[in-house]
Design brief:
With 181 residues, this protein is of the alpha+beta class. The protein has one domain: Peptide Methionine Sulfoxide Reductase, Chain A, CATH 3.30.1060. The protein contains six helices and eight strands; from the N terminus they run βαβαβαβββαββαα. The protein is globular. The two termini are 22 Å apart.
Length: 181
């Protein structure tokens, strides 16, 4: 899907179902696609990525309109909707595939992400240092179709009820002014 006047960033913050559910609701976000990046196995499957042996992280490709939402706003939501201080873990999801990672597509994204990471650490915003990896985007492999729009298609699934829904409800309260109308 091509969008004119758009930027793309790839964000890993644990399970891509959570990241997708959050970013789909932000005003100015044009599309969110769950997938894999950062590993050494071409065209990995979900099962392969979950094994932790491919080097890939579960990420979301977030395409946004920088005229409607700034990259700084994207970063603010990103860092406030996961724990960027735990290496290779988000809640009960453990493994390198769940690492906190930003794969940038523009040098200015790298600069802003590094700036804010340093700022979060110097201001001790979190109880431990932010360890988010910041790396150039590599080959992106979209996840299998059943992973796309997972929360909206499976709202009664236990993971959605107990992990995604509470995260989404908190996000909606904190960022109500940035949600799509």
């Amino acid at each position: 899907m091509e969008f004119s006047n758009s930027d793309t960033i790839y964000l890993g913050a644990g399970c891509f179902w959570c990241v997708e559910a959050v970013f789909k609701e932000l005003e100015g976000v044009l599309s969110v696609t769950s997938g894999y990046m950062g590993g050494h196995v071409p065209h990995p499957t979900y099962k392969q990525v979950c094994s932790g042996t491919t080097g890939h992280a579960e990420v979301c490709r977030v395409v946004f309109d920088p005229q409607k939402i700034s990259f700084d706003d994207i970063l603010e939501v990103y860092w406030q909707t996961h724990d960027p201080t735990t290496p290779n873990r988000q809640g009960n999801d453990v493994g390198t595939q769940y690492r906190s990672v930003i794969f940038y597509t523009l040098e200015k994204q790298k600069e802003r992400a590094e700036y804010f990471k340093q700022k979060l650490n110097s201001e001790k915003v979190f109880p431990a240092p932010v360890i988010t990896e910041i790396a150039p985007a590599a080959e992106f492999y979209p996840a299998e179709d059943y992973h796309q729009n997972y929360f909206s298609q499976n709202p009664d699934q236990p993971y959605c009820q107990y992990v995604i829904r509470p995260k989404l409800e908190k996000f909606r309260k904190v960022f109500a002014h940035k949600l799509k109308r």
